[in-house]
Amino acid sequence: xxxxxTINEKEAKTLFAFIGTKRNATRNKAMFALxxxxxxxxxxxxxxxxxxxxxxxxxVKDVADLSAEQxxxxxxxxxxxxxxxKQHIAALIKSMRVVEPHFPLLQVxxxxxxxxxxxxxxxxxxxxxxxGFTGCSSHTGRRSxxxxxANKGVGIRxxxxxxxxxxxxxxxxxxxxxxxxxxxxxxxxx
Length: 190
Known about the structure:
190 residues; mainly alpha; two-stranded antiparallel sheet; 10 helices; globular
């Protein structure tokens, strides 16, 4: 099975703009933000509740905890919510008619029912395809986030913590070397 394609920051902006022109824009932008800015897997996105990401005062958390049931494998982890993801999550919560901590964060349209992991994967694949991005899947955001961190010189141990991988070698499968990265590396040689 081939790896999901990565996208760059410009392509991500294009995708956010495209999503904004479609139905369920607020929800779908939050879905994409959780993948692209937080590096979450489809299963993790599908399992989120409002209470997982929202503080008691109604603001979005900086760091959220995932239980073992919400993650791949049998070990919980935390994930980090940057300012861009916070904006999309806050907009989504604000758009909800009724907000309770136990409600699914991403709800199937017209219902207070969570997406399945497969439902998230299908929805994300459809968003990419409709926007004209080929070779993308629900894993594209995650791979892109990890690759961009590496491209910006973030240490592999920090990337490991960000992505929630227990094995350092697992992170290496996500790192994507592109032409610009190789050129920048070559320019470092003196």
